[in-house]
Amino acid sequence: MTDLDKIIASLREGKHIPEETVFKLCLNSQELLMNEGNVTHVDTPVTICGDIHGQLHDLLTLFEKSGGVEKTRYIFLGDFVDRGFYSLESFLLLLCYKLRYPDRITLIRGNHETRQITKVYGFYDEVVRKYGSSNVWRYCCEVFDYLSLGAIINNSIFCVHGGLSPDMTTVDEIRTIDRKQEVPHEGAMCDLLWSDPEDVDTWSLSPRGAGFLFGKREVDQFLEKNGVELIARAHQLVMEGYKEMFDGGLVTVWSAPNYCYRCGNVAAVLKIDDDLNREYTIFEAVQAQNEVGNAIIPTKKSQMDYFL
Amino acid sequence: MSRRNSPPLRSSGINTIQLNAAREMHARTVRARRMPIPTSGITAPSILPTATTTATNTVLPAMPARHICNNPNNPPCVHCGSVIIPSPQATLPLEDNPSITINDWTISSRKKPILNSQELDLWENEKLKGLTLPEMIFGNNYIRIENPKLDWSIEFNALDALRNVQLQDSGIRVAYSSDWINSKRRQNSANAAQRYANDVSDDSLNIIHKYDWTYTTRYRGTENPPASRFRLDNDQTLPLDKLAVHDKILFYDDMILFEDELADNGISILNVKIRVMNERLLLLSRFFLRVDDVLVRVYDTRLYVEFDENKVIRESKEFEGKYQDVLAKHRLSQSHDPKAALRDSSWVAQNTPMVKRECEIIEF
User: What is the mean pLDDT of residues B357-362?
Assistant: First the structure.
């Protein structure tokens, strides 16, 4: 058993990983990711997975239900961390698999793989709680900067975390971005990680005052211009685990069941076979307790209180 | 044959594994909610009036068993033998619909998962046309307080709360909005100068779809019959002395009606909770908004019912402040994690100026 296999076994059990080990893993991952393009080429058959959000036990279910990394190729569309209780273990497990089976795992950056967002939405706090310092968080953030921005399957399916950008209408343009940085607040890199599809006639500004919404017209144009037939993205919670829009030209894949341990949604992964057929696998969240009533997931139970 | 766009691969029937899982989950929930029954006590006093049992008696005073629980499958109350503890029924999908009756007042609640795509389509295209819906809607949840004899009820649910959201521009923007828009403008003019074909005109930087993306709602509950029985009387106050007493809580629930993380720019959440005691109840519906580096808002509605007097008081308070001002208050308090405090709606409500208060009553 190699060292990497031992770490993988520990991570799968949610055990503590020493800080030096995390440091080495992160360094090795950076070297590996550095050589990848902004848009990685991936061959079929491949399984596309959406947001994970630190739900380690559900990530294990995902692998179990979809064949496992020993037999299957995977693309993860980002948002590995934040909100769940096991952001670190989930992210490190994916990194270990990437190091152990480099050609089987493609990791794409999500809008949560940034310093700013992880400080607010849980990953930073989790690391400080588990290690007493933020070092491990910093090592992970360094890796975030090297994650690719998209993937293309058999030149036919474009994968990205959020959506399209009006500044970059071809995959080749996306390849020219200098991605090795914190995700900026504006520009194409930001759009790819943040924008959402909606029923709009043209590019339009989100009412929040930042971020784009794109509609069927933009999707159709992108598909035609790039000779692809599908945009696979994540980023938005879907009760059924996946949602196809715009006559099947775009799909949202969501892989965190019972999101935040309270939404009651199922999760999905999308398998693309050699003929580009789509096959969705649905899975549910693990039980919060094992058969003898011990907590697997430390859920926050609402306490009766004499609120005023 | 292409299987593209095929329906989800779910078996048509319910398989045994799911059924067993549901049964197990139900059993666990019931177990978890069963009150710890004292090993000696309750039945012991009549048989053995010793010093220890007298002590137990003072801890557990005799409770007038006038409440009726309407969920016969639930575990019984240790005090009176009737069933009061919220508990799910063994149905598929799992349903949690507890209810209690005191005098002619019945209080019930329901908790279900977030809306599915079909329900969302219906809400978006018909029920709430014009609103881009929040990320998580617990649209089948509610807390209901009803009195059939007085022909009056009030319910708190997500649909009516969202109907109160304005379908116009709130004027609120995320902190980096002007930077973002300016950078797009610069990009556009640079593109124009290079005669570079670009898809985005300055029109794209206008907000076309106008609605209040902060989902601010002044929802105070849905009355039935719809003609409100409340009378404005701002001199009224909630009887805090009565509510501060730790009377035994017979029924308790706490639920989210909707929540949105504003694309990671903060939070917008509507939460409602209730506690029912032998003589009165208190419900708190709280809308909490935090737009990071911009503002915070807490809109509270408290509903109080005194069962024996059939008196209802509803008090609404609005708190609002600039993010930086509230953050500065936290610095004065010298605790170490300001961001955590700004995630805590109770702390924010206590440290943000009140901008409005209204009180209404019903005396039947």
Answer: 97
B273 reaches A (C-beta below 8 A): yes
Cα B244–Cα B245–Cα B249 angle in degrees, nearest 5: 105
End-to-end CA distance of chain A: 58
Mean pLDDT over each residue of chain B, to the nearest integer: 80
Which residues are paired to A40 by β-bridges? A151
Q: How many CB atoms lie within 10 A of CB B98?
A: 24
- Placement of tokens 């030209």 in the chain: A249
Give chain B positions within 8 Å (CB) of A173.
none
User: Is residue B210 predicted with pLDDT exceeding 70?
Assistant: yes
Residue % of chain B over a pLDDT of 70: 69
Which residues of B fall within a CB distance of 8 Å from A170?
Answer: none
Residue B198's pLDDT band (boundaries 50, 70, 90)? low
* Minimal CA separation from A194 to chain B, in Å: 8
pLDDT of residue B41: 38
Q: Given CA atoms A97, A102, A103, A109 in this order, what sign does their dihedral have?
A: positive
C-alpha distances in Å from residue B128, one per residue of B159, B161, B266? 8, 11, 23
Cross-strand bridge partners of residue B362 = B312
Nearest to B332 by CA among B351, B355, B346, B354: B351
Spell out the residues 6+ positions from residue B302 whose beta carbon is closer than 8 angstroms to its own: B238, B282, B283, B284, B285, B313, B314, B315, B316
Is the CA virtual torsion A114, A116, A118, A121 positive or negative? negative
Angle, CA of B11, B13 and B15, to the nearest 5°: 85
Question: Would you call A57 a catalytic residue per the annotation?
Answer: no
pLDDT in tens, A227-263: 999 999 999 999 999 999 999 999 999 999 999 888 8
Domains of chain A: 3-283 (3.60.21.10)
DSSP output for B288-322? EEEETTTEEEEEEEEEEEETTTTEEEEEEEEEEEE
For the record, the structure tokens of A93 come out as 């497990």
What is the per-residue pLDDT for A245? Answer: 95
Residue A298: its pLDDT value, please? 64
The ipTM is: 0.85
Q: What distances in angstroms separate CA B293 from CA A82, A183, A184, B177, B326, one per listed residue?
A: 20, 19, 17, 12, 10
B-chain residue closest to A264, CA distance: B113
Residue B92 clears pLDDT 50, i.e. is over it: no
Residue B79, chain A, CB below 8 Å: the answer is no
Q: What is the mean pLDDT of chain A?
A: 92
Are A137 and A128 in contact by the 8 Å Cβ rule? The answer is: yes
**pTM for the full model?**
0.82
- Asked whether the beta carbons of B168 and B212 are under 8 A apart, the reply is yes
**pLDDT above 90 as % of chain A:** 82
- Asked whether A197 and A181 are in contact (CB, 8 A), the reply is no
Taking the Cβ of residue A200 and every Cβ of chain B, the question of whether any pair is shorter than 8 Å is answered with yes
CA angle B160, B163, B164 (to 5 degrees): 100
How is residue B70 written in tokens? Answer: 């309407």
B344 touches chain A (CB under 8 A): no
